[in-house]
Amino acid sequence: MTQQNFSLTHRTRPSTLEKDAPLLLMLHGYGSDENDLFSFAGELPEKYFVVSARAPIPMQPFGNAWYAINFEADGGKFSNIEQAVESRKSVMQFIAELEKNYPVQKSGHTLFGFSQGSILSYALSLSHPEKFKQIVAMSGYIDEKMLVENYREQDFSHLRIFGSHGTQDQVIPVDWARKNQPFLNDLNIENDYSEYPVGHGISPAGFQKLLKWLS
Hints:
- It is a single chain.
- The longest helix is centred in the middle third of the chain and has 21 residues, at 81-101.
- This protein has helices at 34-38, 81-101, 116-127, 174-177, 180-186, 204-214; strands at 2-3, 10-13, 23-27, 49-53, 57-58, 64-65, 69-71, 77-79, 109-114, 132-138, 160-166, 190-196.
- By secondary structure, the protein is of the alpha/beta class.
- The chain has an eight-stranded mixed β-sheet with strand order 1-2-4-3-9-10-11-12, with helices on both faces. A two-stranded antiparallel sheet has the order 5-6.
- It starts with a strand and ends with a helix.
- Helices cover 28% and strands 25% of the residues.
- It has one domain (2-214): Alpha/Beta hydrolase fold, catalytic domain (Rossmann fold, 3-Layer(aba) Sandwich), CATH 3.40.50.
- It contains six helices and twelve strands.
């Protein structure tokens, strides 16, 4: 059921736990909506209270974005960092609303991001590690410009990150994703990274590995 009485429209799948359920928040990719990743909700461990959020920037003729991507004449593209930072702040506000209105824990949350939602998940967890325990970052990369200034001074010792990428991804080059693991290792963050022979999408083998990791 889609919920609209919050700062972000979203869908939910309740947990089998009646209180203090671990929250798993899904953040979709550029041009999509809350229904996209929610298609995986039924396969996720039942202990999680699953929320799939809709990004705040509507696109034409359909879809939504966490921030604009501007395409240049020479084929290059760049992200609107100001909008990305605003979305990072908006998701933190939304999480506070979820904690207040649903029977979920007040920290130790899991983020499940794909593509632009994956990039934002990295920004959220590296900027506010006190709120998160697990990050699923599929087909994304770390953009240091989206992080808070003092992020390196924070405690990441409890954080674990699952990353995956397609070797034939034509939207976000796999070379960008390959920089994630050295970056995370430098911060002493536990991480698991895999590549699969697919394009810009979630491979069945990668999803099965993810389910084992979440369990």
